[in-house]
Amino acid sequence: MTTTMKSYRVNDIFYSLQGEGHHTGRAAAFVRFSGCNLRCPFCDTDFESFNEMTGEQIVAHISAFASRFVVLTGGEPSLQVDESLVDQLHKAGFEVAMETNGTHALPQNLDWITVSPKGKTVVERCNELKVVFQGASPNVPDIVADYYYLQPCDTGDAVRNRAIVDACVEYIKEHPQWRLSLQTHKLTGFK
What we know:
By secondary structure, the protein is α/β, with parallel strands linked by helices. 20% of the residues lie in helices and 30% in strands. The protein contains four helices and nine strands; from the N terminus they run E-E-E-H-E-H-E-E-E-E-H-E-H. A nine-stranded mixed β-sheet has the order 3-1-2-4-5-6-7-8-9. The N and C termini lie far apart (43 Å).
């Protein structure tokens, strides 16, 4: 009897520092999954190309890195990531975080969930809610989180970006349950 091992469409695997949100500056293995169910105009990620990889291949690849913190990202990782893959990562000693838009159900065995809502969300609870701030009061879904972050939208226009950052800072000063999340990987130039 032949068993088929599930494969995942992986766009990229790399080792760097988390560039935004609660874990900013933390060394992490990143597994970027291909494909997304949304087409956000400000998205800075190529998530169409991919290599098929099994869970075992993913674990083998990231096990070469010193950190035992892995971030599953995309595209939209919830379209592919399942409890089996998370179990394999746990078995290899990894703490598993996922960055998601919150539009699909998530595996129940994740260690950290970051929701960056960009559509109708189904996730009701997360560790970190990270809302892209575009210059006006944010449209915040009804999601309970341990931490709330606003991240100024990078429009590619320095003048517009400055206005968005200034408005974001003022909003946080008036709504102190929010924290500022900057994309430090863009500010410093690391991947």
